[in-house]
Specification:
single chain, about 50 residues, alpha+beta, 1 helix, about 20% helix
Length: about 50
Amino acid sequence: MVEVSIIIPTKNNGDIIEKCLSSIEGLEYPQEKYEVLIVDGHSTDETIDSY
């Protein structure tokens, strides 16, 4: 059961999105209790390819 939703709004942040996701993976919180939602605002860089 998901208890926490982490929402990442992004646009043209391909240079940092992978680091952001890696940081979330390193949380000391059970992965089955959270979800990560990436909301992309029509990026024109490599953001979509990064995740």
